[in-house]
Design a protein that fits this description.
Length: about 160
């Protein structure tokens, strides 16, 4: 929902903001797809946000380069996908330090929507949330959408005879 800035008598429309957390997992890319579609509907700015896996200040130089390249690949892949799906929406990227849930909650504190994927913890816990989505659900200060894994991507196990 667009809000207005009424400071000093100026009425200025503020574009809605949707923050989507991505980590390169299939469910985070599903969350990205959902967020792009929603941003188009709302005419919102989409903030594609990746929280690094390890704070950069604790890594050695050689390890930092390797991590940075992998994380840059995650954000580049997500941005390319978002731009291909929504060439008409404003898309910005952001990289933050862990912990992931805290970073996403802080970044989205005045957003219109936070979108995350739920990786879950495997077959026997497929109905549970991943720790980041669970923590976001408890701490988010804006509406939250959690995208679960697609049914077709889940492992199917044949019960023993």
């Amino acid at each position: 929902m667009a809000t207005e800035n009424q400071n000093a008598g100026v009425r200025e429309a503020v574009q809605p903001r949707i923050v989507v957390g991505i980590d390169g997992s299939p469910t985070s890319l599903d969350a990205l797809e959902w967020a792009v579609r929603e941003a188009r509907l709302r005419k919102a700015t989409l903030e594609v946000t990746h929280v690094t896996f390890v704070p950069h200040d604790v890594l050695e130089l050689e390890t930092l380069a390797e991590f940075s390249q992998r994380e840059r690949s995650i954000i580049d892949t997500a941005l390319a996908k978002a731009k291909a799906m929504g060439p008409d929406i404003r898309i910005i990227s952001r990289v933050a330090d862990p912990p992931a849930a805290k970073a996403l909650v802080d970044i989205s504190k005045d957003a219109d929507l936070l979108v995350v994927g739920s990786r879950g913890l495997g077959l026997f816990k497929e109905f549970t949330l991943g720790s980041v989505s669970h923590d976001c659900s408890r701490q988010a200060r804006c509406p939250l959408v959690i995208i679960g894994s697609r049914t077709s991507e889940r492992e199917h196990v044949t019960p023993p005879a």
